[in-house]
Design brief:
It is a single chain. With 237 residues, the protein is an alpha/beta fold. 32% of the residues lie in helices and 21% in strands. The strands form 2 sheets. It has a 7-stranded mixed sheet. Strands 8-9-10-11 form a 4-stranded antiparallel sheet, with no helix packed on it. A hairpin with a 4-residue loop joins strand 10 and strand 11. About 10% of the residues have low confidence.
Length: 237
């Protein structure tokens, strides 16, 4: 076997070093993602994603999420679209409150809303979602979408990113009370997605509509029921 010239070995080492440096910089950027919490009412905050499809340029930050700070902990609505964004959302919550994260409500299992769940699961939160998401998670679409996102959103998603099912499957409308606040989970699907949930915080008159309402962008209609979607919006006016 012919040996490489010394200058070739040095060049190869330099290239390896450059690649390693780029990967390290990308990983650092992933950890440096920040989202800005905006106060909506006494107890309710939200973060706003960018318009446009998910890409490496926007790091998958294309959806909104919210959280509600109660006297007995925090309720989170959606977890954003990558584990890095989930950690950034958790950091945003921690800039407002150090109360325990009690629960995450997933309005629907589309990729820009739930890949950040791992951060909240690690923080001890319980995940709730509607049972209509089960078919998606247990079928072939979810793994295919995960593989696509791993390719398109690297390094913010990688082989460690997993599909996390909820701890509790909901069937129809559900209400609960945490820290003196009343939460109504309203099943409005199938509309944008089969498992659409809206979340009302009664005391603050705040409604998290999931992706039932779009503003400033073209809605995704890949698995939508447009007739029932329109009916759902009309019924909740």
């Amino acid at each position: 076997m012919q040996a490489w010239p010394k200058h070739g070995v040095h060049l190869a080492r330099m290239l390896v070093g450059c690649v390693c440096a780029l990967l390290a910089a990308a990983a650092a950027a992933a950890e440096a993602i920040s989202v800005k919490p905006v106060r909506l009412s006494d107890h309710v905050w939200y973060v706003q994603g960018q318009s446009g499809p998910a890409s490496a340029a926007n790091q998958g930050f294309i959806s909104n999420a919210g959280f509600v700070v109660t006297q007995d902990g925090v309720v989170v609505i959606d977890a954003l679209g990558t584990p890095a964004l989930g950690r950034a959302l958790l950091a945003a919550i921690r800039s407002v409150s150090d109360a325990p994260i009690r629960r995450v409500i997933v309005t629907h299992y589309h990729s820009d809303h739930f890949y950040g769940l791992s951060a909240f699961k690690s923080a001890g939160a319980e995940i709730w979602a509607h049972k209509k998401a089960r078919e998606y998670l247990e079928g072939g679409v979810a793994p295919a979408r995960l593989a696509q996102r791993r390719r398109e959103l690297a390094p913010w998603m990688d082989q460690h990113t997993q599909l996390l099912p909820p701890d509790r499957w909901l069937d129809g409308d559900t209400s609960f009370v945490i820290g003196g606040l009343h939460f109504d989970l309203i099943y409005v699907g199938p509309a944008h997605a089969p498992d659409d949930l809206a979340v009302m915080v009664r005391e603050d008159a705040a409604l998290f509509s999931g992706d039932i309402v779009f503003s400033g962008r073209v809605p995704f209609v890949g698995d939508a029921d447009s007739r029932r979607w329109l009916a759902a919006m009309e019924a909740r006016r």
